[in-house]
Structures are given as C-alpha cells and as structure tokens.
C-alpha cells in the first residue's frame, strides 16, 4: 500500500523533470509562461494540425506551416517521449514518420516514410524508452519496429507482425516497458505480451487472451504505477478494469468490473499523470466522462459534475504531462475543446472562449497527442 501511494504522488515531479516514460525535451513540457506542443490528425482533410500550448493558460496557437501533409486517412498519432518524433497510422496500411523541429514544432517527413504495416492500423504506441514502436492492425495483428535514435527511421522487428485477436483497436505499453497489451473489438478480449528489451519482439503471456467482460472495445490504457489496466467498451457502455501481475503481466478483473459508463464510447481511456482520474470520450453525446480511481482496488467512481460538455463527436483525448490541461478532438466539429483540470477532484472546466476555445483543427479529427502522452 505505501509503495503504491508514494509512487503515484511522486509521478508528476518525475514527469516534469523529463523521465523516459513521461516525455520531455524540445518543448515537451515547459514551465509556467512557456509553451508545449500538441498535434491532431485529421482524417477528413488528410493532414496534421500542430499547436503550441501556453502552459499558463492552456490556450493553443497554430504552429507555422500547420497543417502538415504526408498522411492519408490518418487514424492515430503518437509523439515520442523526447518530443523529437511523431508517428501517424494511415488507414490504408502504413505509418508516416516525422521529425519535430525543436525550435518551431514543425513536422518534417522522415526519409523512407511512410512505412508499410498491417491492414487498417488503428492505434500506435512508443515504448517509454523510445526504442520500439507498435501498431495495432485491424486485420488481427501487431506490427513492431525499432526506432533509430536521432533520425526516427523505423526498422521491422524480426517476427513482426505478431498475431493478436479479432479487430485490434488499441495498444499500450506498460510504464516499465516490460509488457504490451492490445484491445480486440471483435473478439472482446485483450492480447498480452512480454517485450524483449533488446529486440522489441513480443511473446504471448500465459493465460492470454483475457476476456474484457464487455463488448466492442474502443481502446486501452494502464495506470502510471502499472498496477491497473483499463479498457473502454463501446458496445456495452462500460469500462473494464484489471489488476496487473507485476512479474508475469497476467490480468485479473477487479471487483465490480466492468463499470458503467456513457453511451457510444470512443477511442482510448485516458489517465491523469498522478493516476487518480480516468476520462473517456462519449461520442454521440458530445461529452467526456470522468471517474476517480480507487488507488487500492482500481475501482471507478463517477466524478462530480461528469459528464463534461465537449464539441461534436469527441474521439481523441489527451492532457499535458503536468496534469493541468485537458483536450478533446471533436470529429464532428473539426476543432479541439480545451479545459483546466482541478487538482484535487479532476473536474474539467472549459477554457474561456476569449482564449479561442474551441480551437480550429482540420476536417474530421481522429487522434490527438502530446509528447510522451496519448
């Protein structure tokens, strides 16, 4: 108990000083009065909107040259922990790789990009040490790559792609970099693997796949202390919660799981840096649902004031590493809703409209990310 609580309380400090699992560098976090960066992929306009984020107000300002091309029907985006690369999955079966200009935040295509992956990639993740990249492919597998330091080029891991369940829609790597989990929408289960720390290759964990207890998963995430895993289920309007065996990576459903959530859940759930709060986008209801997380059991309790109004059909959600500001990419509205996060309660309060909230994006935003964050 004491170990769990102290690790969660220490996390925000580690993130702000640039720990490998949280991001940092080149505008990754910033200090009060400076800027950070945020990127949104737009499926309808085939581009990426880039912004600087004022770390005092949370307001977004378009980066010079934004939106950036080099993507086709993009589905998801991830920014490396150092904030120096960005990777976008394209529905046609590829990943577009970019370096991020450290001064301006502009995206520059990596030589040889895009790189082929499996059929209909829907999610992408980078290991906390920045060495490996994985995509969840709707065709039923996971593509794995090593990431070349500096250039950001991708090289296929031997044995890739690795078999998963039916219609993978979400992928996450544990904070320690030891385990990888995939949420499978078609088979209502979770594929689980250990990660070879030298090669990035995946080996199935004993007992996997693990049933979600819900239906039609939309995404997956892990608590910062690596004790709990969460899956949002769009078909059953629930969130499934599991405890993680720290040695084997095996999953066990926690008492009360799955927990009731809103209707038409979209994308992956999102956890605050201190591990205390969880959020899920509620698509057709145009809002975001918030929960508090019991740090002993992983159980979810609806947050006071939840759900929180968003724009039209929110799909992707993210927050800055300091846990001050929250953003929702609204697919139907072509914009990004921004909020402050109450430190003690996790309650979301929209930024004042005088700051420009909501902030314009491209057509049909489908994913959103900040350095080292989903």
Protein topology:
Blueprint: H1 2-16, E1 35-42, E2 47-54, E3 60-62, E4 74-79, E5 85-90, E6 94-100, E7 107-109, E8 115-116, E9 121-126, E10 132-137, E11 141-147, E12 154-156, E13 162-163, E14 168-173, E15 179-184, E16 189-195, E17 202-204, E18 210-211, E19 217-222, E20 228-233, E21 238-244, E22 251-253, E23 259-260, E24 265-271, E25 277-282, E26 287-293, E27 300-302, E28 308-309, E29 314-319, E30 325-330, E31 335-341, E32 348-350, E33 359-360, E34 365-369
Antiparallel strand pairs: 1-2, 1-34, 2-3, 4-5, 5-6, 6-7, 6-8, 9-10, 10-11, 11-12, 11-13, 14-15, 15-16, 16-17, 16-18, 19-20, 20-21, 21-22, 21-23, 24-25, 25-26, 26-27, 26-28, 29-30, 30-31, 31-32, 31-33
Largest sheet: number of strands, sense, barrel closure: 5 strands, antiparallel
Given as residue ranges, the uncertain stretches (5+ residues, pLDDT < 50) are: 1-34
Total helical segments: 1
Subunit arrangement of the protein = single chain
Task: Give the overall shape.
Answer: globular
Overall pLDDT metric: 90
Taking the alpha carbons of the first and last residues, their distance comes to 28 Å
- Fraction in helix: under 10%
Which class in CATH terms?
A: Mainly Beta
Number of domains: 1
Please indicate the percent range of residues in DSSP E strands (runs of 2 or more): over 45%
Radius of gyration, Cα only, in angstroms? 18 Å
């Amino acid at each position: 108990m004491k170990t769990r609580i102290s690790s969660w309380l220490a996390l925000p400090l580690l993130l702000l000083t640039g720990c490998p699992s949280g991001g940092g560098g080149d505008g990754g976090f910033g200090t009060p009065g400076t800027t950070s960066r945020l990127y949104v992929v737009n499926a309808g306009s085939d581009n990426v909107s880039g912004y600087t984020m004022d770390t005092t107000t949370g307001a977004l300002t378009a980066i010079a040259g934004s939106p950036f091309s080099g993507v086709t029907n993009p589905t998801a985006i991830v920014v490396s922990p150092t904030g120096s690369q960005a990777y976008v999955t394209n529905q046609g079966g590829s990943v577009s790789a970019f370096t991020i200009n450290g001064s301006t935040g502009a995206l520059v295509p990596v030589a040889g990009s895009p790189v082929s992956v499996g059929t209909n990639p829907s999610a992408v993740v980078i290991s906390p040490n920045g060495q490996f990249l994985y995509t969840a492919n709707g065709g039923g597998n996971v593509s794995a790559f090593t990431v070349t330091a500096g250039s950001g080029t991708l090289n296929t891991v031997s044995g890739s792609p690795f078999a998963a369940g039916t219609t993978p829609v979400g992928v996450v790597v544990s904070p320690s970099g030891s385990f990888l989990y995939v949420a499978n929408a078609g088979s209502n289960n979770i594929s689980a693997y250990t990660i070879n720390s030298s090669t990035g290759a995946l080996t199935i964990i004993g007992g996997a796949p693990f049933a979600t207890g819900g239906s039609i998963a939309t995404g997956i995430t892990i608590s910062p202390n690596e004790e709990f895993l969460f899956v949002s289920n769009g078909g059953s309007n629930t969130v499934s919660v599991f405890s993680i065996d720290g040695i084997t990576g095996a999953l066990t459903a926690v008492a009360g799981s799955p927990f009731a959530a809103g209707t038409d859940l979209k994308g992956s759930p999102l956890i605050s840096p201190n591990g205390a709060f969880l959020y899920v986008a509620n698509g057709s209801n145009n809002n975001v649902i918030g929960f508090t997380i019991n740090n002993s059991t992983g159980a979810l309790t609806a947050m006071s004031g939840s759900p929180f109004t968003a724009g039209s059909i929110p799909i992707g959600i993210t927050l800055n590493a300091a846990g001050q500001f929250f953003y929702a990419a609204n697919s139907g509205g072509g914009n990004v809703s921004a909020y402050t996060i109450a430190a003690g309660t996790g309650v979301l309060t929209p930024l004042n409209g005088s700051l420009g909230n909501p902030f314009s994006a491209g057509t049909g935003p489908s994913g959103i990310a900040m350095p080292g964050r989903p």
